[in-house]
Structures are given as C-alpha cells and as structure tokens.
C-alpha cells in the first residue's frame, strides 16, 4: 500500500504469488488515477467526464439527444414499413426449401471448420502459456536466492494446474474434429492446406514443451513420426520395396466382436509410445499427468491429425499449399492482388454464364430486408460486437454452439433410428388373416388393433395390384411468395423464374406440351412455376387375385383388405406411369393404425412387375434416406482408429 516496498516484503509477496495466492495488499490506492492517466475524454466514465471535461460532456449529451430523436423517427417509420413481415416471409421461404440432405451435408462441414479453428486458437493460447512458464521459472530461480526453502516443485504443479483450461478446450475441439471429418464431404475440405497447417503446429507445439521431460517427449515424437510414416507408405502409389514391407500388417487377431489387433512394426512402435506416455505421467508422483503429459498431447493430436489428413491429400496439393504459405509470408501484397484478380475473373465467368436479369433481381430481393434492418438499427456498431466477443472467449462460444448443434442432431438421429426395424417374413395373406375383416367379425376392430400393434416396426415386401394414385398435397413456396406481390410484378417474376407456356404449334409439339396446350387459354397467367412443385401422393393397393387348382383366377376384390401407401415427390415419375391393374412389388414399414380399415403406411420402395420398360424410367425405385446408423458407426470407427491405430482398429 506504499509507494516503496522493502526487499523482504517483496520476497514474501512473490512467494505467495508463486503458490497461487494473490495478496490483498497488491491493490494500490492510486489505482484509479493510474488507470485514468493518458486517457482521452471519450474513454472516461460519464461522472468523471462531467467534472474534468464539462464542455465535451455537454456536446456528447446533445448528440445523445439527437440519436434518441432519430431512433424515435426510425421506429415510427419501421411501423409503417412491415420489415418484420418481409424478414419472416424470406426466412420461411428459405427454410421451406432446405432439405434433410442439405443439413446432412452442411452441418459436418461447419462443425469441422469451427472445431479446427478452435484447435488453432487453443494452440496459440498454449504457446502464450509456455511463455508464461518461462517467466514463472525465471521468477522461481530468483526467489531461490532469497528463500532456499521454497518448494519450487509444488509451485510449478500449482501453476500448471491453474493453466489447464486451454488444454481441456483443445481436447474438446479435437473430439469434434475427429467425429466430423469422416462424415464431411472431402470435396469441400482443402486437405493439403490443412495437412500443412497440422505439420506446422506439430513442430511448433513440440518446441514449446518443457525441457524437464525432454528425454521422453523427444523419443515419443520420433516414435510417433516413424509409425505415421510407415502407415503412410501403404497409401503411396510408388514402390518402396522393403520400406513398404515394414509398414504392412503381418497378421490380425480379433479382440472380441468389435476390435482387431494388428500385429506389425507400427503396432510395436505405438506400444512403446504408450509406455512413454506412462513414464511422462509417472514423473513427480504422477503429477506429471497434467504437467508434462497433457501439454505433450497437443503435439500428439496435431501429429495424428496431420497423418490422417495426409491420407486424403495429393502431392500436387501439398506443393501448392507449401508455395502458397511461402508466398503468404513473403509476398503477401502480390498474393492478395493475385487472389483478388482470380476471384474477379471467376466471378465474371460465372456472372456471364447465368441470366443477368435473374441475378440482379435475386440480389435486390436479398438485400431489401438487410437494408431495412440496417436502416432501423442505425446505431449498430461492429466495434461493440468485437468487444463483446473479446470479453467472452471465442473458443467457449464455438464449443457451446458446436455442442448444441451436435446434441440437436443426436436427438434427431435417435428419433429417426429409435424404432427397431425388423426385416419380417410376414406375408400379406397372414396380415389379412390376423388383422383383417375375418378378425373384426370374430371379435371387434379395436381388439384387433390392440393385438396387431405387436407387429409395429416390421419391414415387409409385398406384391399387390395398383388401383389408383391421387395427389394429397402440392407445396410450392415460391409460387406462394409471388402470389403476395402486386399482379404486374408477380407476372413478371413468374416468367423470370418460371417457365412460359408452350407456343402450341401443331406441327412441332410433344405429348407433354400438348397436355399443357389444352389448359393454356384457361389459365390467368402467361407463365407458370410448376417446376418448384413438391407433391405428396397416396396409392391404393389391393391384394393380388388368388387362383384355385391352376384354373382361371378367381377375383376376390375385397376393398376392406386394401392398404394405402404415402409417397413423396421422388416417386413421381414411377407413379405417373402406372396403370390400373399393374402388378407392383412394394416395401414399407408396418406402423400406425395396424388392424384397422385401409391402414396407411409410408412407401419405401416400389417395382412394377408387368409394366413395359419404355413406360418406366427405371426398374426399382427406392426412397432416398440417410443411413444414420452407418454414419454414426463410421464416425466412431474413425475416432477409435485415430487414437489407437495401428495398434488396434475397430471392426
């Protein structure tokens, strides 16, 4: 609390700091004055600004009043212009056109890139902490001159324990990276560039490690690099003779139902690497776990990630990445101009290849809500957003959002795959006997439904007679949005984004155009947007006719045994080519109102058995569905192999 401090007091205070205790007398009385020294009037609090700079405070109050008046005017204007309605319409239009396939494509990519960025940020934080380690050790060496009895080892343990936060966030980021990388589209990941970054951080993270465990860390890194190089030789196209033989698996030993032991030289190297991990953790009565082993795991993870990404890289890509990073460091202005020119040329080519009017209209429509939003939020400051991000850790923000997205996707996958699907041998005749009219007459329909609910989840493939198909719903969000516009704008945009009705020339008209020509003069528009239609169908299927003793078929067309199949728009071409009486083979899952009249199931696959090939686009049409189980299995297998291959691999 004084201006000067004695040497003994300084030593005592620094000893407490080394032990992780911040003394209360470090708080200075003149702290406020020191903080305000050299600050401009804009940086001072309002109460101090009024005292020290009254004129400046008055001018700021005037500007604040003007801002309040302008905000009130903007609020009145925003009530006249329905900006929220426009934003909501555009938002729902975008959401209605997004599909499960799009989310399955974009979410793994977003998780991978955000997790990789989080890994880089955490690694830079680790580098910063390594500099703090050097300063801390210099401080403890200084204290030992004045206090020989200081427990330096315990002080270092406390310091290391208090700086574990970036390592925990780094390991969480690695977890998300290794789970998202195998299921993300490799066409949208620059593997060569990311492999170069991984190699760079492998080297730099090793150089930032403590020298206390250097014998173990050096041997661990050499062992890991040797095992990685031997495993990479197996995927290289060239012939490396005995070197390639060294990386081969001699034989495999199954370990239970899920794991396989690979007996090879890289396997022995990994066993030695695990031994070195144990030796690092054993230092200082196993306090080396968080003093030496956890910091080395940063280097280990980057090295493993570089080996994995190198498998997906190409030689030309690695050369391109190396030259690109070299230019980035030493020729940044030239590189920036070159990238700008390349992007401009590609943009011009893409711009010329599309319709100019359509692009301009789309851009204008997309910018209208943004302009209104910017207009109503005049005081929105990018600087404030940056300050808020610096106040809250960007890594925590990334990990929280990734965790939320992963949990949401996990609940969706669990819901989609929750019901166990059983490939049943149940025939339609057996189902009709147990859950059809005969059973209703013996007891009643409600009792039959309760009994037949035990068949829920059976995947069946039956053969039946196609009776008829009808459209139950037509969804066209683009048409709905255009119908809300004034008539002349709507007609113009309908022709811009849609298709015009045919000219109906009798000499040159196709079958499809002839059907449209019948309706052309009855419609109220010159163009249509039916290309954006999404249909939902219902197909009524009857049981096939039975026969007795090889005689002619005896028709038993009992409509109470008919079933109804729901089909999505992807079955459109097949269903429009079917004719009444066609024999079809279909697959579905028994669910819903089992045992009732005309149960409704979802169509999974369909084949026409007696249709002419020219009438049907293809043989068997299967509903396109995401195989979530195989995707999750692929991610878990990759994560296990990431940590334990070539020692162990998942089956």
From TrEMBL:
The chain crosses the membrane at residues 76-96, 102-127, 167-185, 191-209, 221-243, 255-278, 290-310, 322-344, 356-374, 394-414. Residues 428-530 form the Wolframin cysteine-rich domain. Residues 532-650 form the Wolframin OB-fold domain. It holds the Pfam family WCOB. Keywords: Membrane, Transmembrane, Transmembrane helix. One of its GO terms (cellular component) is endoplasmic reticulum membrane. One of its GO terms (biological process) is calcium ion homeostasis. This is WFS1 protein. It comes from Oreotrochilus melanogaster. The gene is Wfs1.
